[in-house]
Amino acid sequence: MLITHEHQELYRNVKKFVQDELNPHIPQWEKDGIWPAREVLGKMGKLGYLGINKPESVGGLGLDYSYEVMFAQAIGNCICGSLPMAIGVITDMATPALARFGSKALQQEFLAPVVAGEMVCSIAVSEAGAGSDVAGVKTTAVKDGDDYVINGSKMWITNGTQADWACVLANTSEGKVHQNKSLIVVPLDAKGVDRKTKLDKLGMRSSDTAMIFFDNVRVPRRNLIGVEGMGFMYQMMQFQEERLYGAASSIDGLTNIINETIDYTRQRQAFGGSILDNQYVHFRLAELKTEVEALRALIYDTTERYIGGKEKMEDLAMLASMCKLKVGRLGREVTDSCLQFWGGQGFMWDNNVARAYRDTRLVSIGGGADEIMLGIIAKCMGILPSKKAHEAKKAAQAA
After folding, report:
1. How many whole angstroms separate alpha carbon 102 and alpha carbon 165?
2. Closest CA relative to residue 320, chosen from 14, 7, 52, 65
3. Concatenated DSSP letters of 171-184
4. Residues 6 or more apart whose Cβ sits within 8 Å of residue 262
5. Which CATH architecture has domain 232-381?
6. Domain locations along the chain
7. Please, are residues 172 and 143 in contact by the beta-carbon 8 Å criterion?
8. With bands split at pLDDT 50, 70 and 90, how would you rate the model's confidence at 140?
């Protein structure tokens, strides 16, 4: 990926915003268990950060996705994982399908205010019984005149207690599971919506996460994104940008954890020398830094192929899944290794390394678990077990 002066300026300005406007408040937001989304997004909207690759018709900058990757990388300088994730929901998870397939009227009503920082949004796909198994969602949207009537529930919804609307995946017919789903914009102040249940999480503490219940919620059918029955396909496309964003937003965070560990182990004395003087320690840190740079190269290469538009969607899905798989596993490896080198100080709750250790654990779960990424990669490689072998395995397990 070619990094231009414009990319560098965007990166520099966003990083400064993180350092000046976000990081000083992170400790308090972590304690509160919520971030002031409207306040933060209002500032970001005025700076043009929420619509970098969105159409100019809705107030976006209309730039290609390489600029969004630079934005994500800069946002990763937050001293927590919560804010990059919560902001990424706004820019790269709840809005890509609306920007790509939504009607002009729907975009003006719901996307333009998000780009301006005047609305908060969420992506509502996962359910208690359907996380990585997107085809298994049970929420229904039944046509009734000019409305959809929505019933069901959604789980682990980031920004869920503050969002003005959610991009909801629901079953709009009883057909095949990959062809009966649609994406619908659902205002969360509608009658029958209950999102009072705020979830208590291991990490990502400063982003609010909710359960959302829909009890005969009426939504105009004009709130349908694109074509009815195409929701599963649209969501699979949204996942590619979500996974690229998530990987890119981790690069600087992991690099910063390594650098903080270098500084700490250089100062920390034991047995007549610094901890960093131990060959195992500085070799391990060198190895981790190499892995992060390899991840960066994979992300940049995937981005270049994505914006080039010459790759098959299947190939892009494989590369984006590789990015997601690698960042989840590397995040755990980096934070676990670095925390060990901090000794007892690394076990303190407010330590940046300890916070990263908690936050990065989600990366291998949310947005498609590691096992799902491996399945996608294997499928794209053409090495999934044959149907016959699969049936034989099931028969053996039953016996």
Report:
1. 15
2. 65
3. E-SSS-TTTSEEEE
4. 276, 285
5. Up-down Bundle (1.20)
6. 5-120, 122-228, 232-381
7. yes
8. very high
Beta bridge partners of 140: 151, 171
Separation between Cα atoms, residue 137 and residue 153, nearest integer Å: 9
Phi, psi (5° rounding) for residue 93?
A: -125, -45
Q: Is residue 304 annotated as part of the catalytic site, yes or no?
A: no
Q: What share of the chain is helix, strand, coil (3-state, %, to 5)?
A: 55, 15, 30
Which residue among the candidates 127, 242, 304, 371 is catalytic per the annotation?
242
Overall CATH class of domain 5-120: mainly alpha
Cβ-defined contacts of 297-301 (< 8 Å, 24+):
298/247, 298/322, 298/323, 298/326, 299/69, 299/244, 299/247, 299/248, 299/251, 299/323, 300/1, 300/69, 301/1
Question: pTM of this prediction?
Answer: 0.94
95 touches 329 (CB < 8 A): no
Q: How many CB atoms lie within 10 A of CB 269?
A: 11
Task: Give the span between the Cα atoms of 18 and 366, in whole angstroms.
Answer: 24
Inter-axis angle of helices 279-308 and 65-75, nearest 10: 150
Label residue 248 exposed, middle or buried (CB < 10 Å: 0-12, 13-18, 19+). buried
The encoded tokens of residue 249 equal 């937003």
Report the SS3 class of residue 104: helix
- Yes or no: say if 141 and 154 are a contact pair by the CB < 8 Å rule: no
Asked if residues 245 and 72 have their Cβ atoms less than 8 Å apart, the reply is yes
Q: Answer whether residue 108 shows pLDDT above 90.
A: yes
Q: What is the pLDDT of residues 248-285, one digit of tens each?
A: 999 999 999 999 999 999 999 999 999 999 999 999 99
Pick the CATH number of 122-228 from 2.60.40.740, 2.40.40.10, 2.40.110.10, 3.40.50.1820: 2.40.110.10
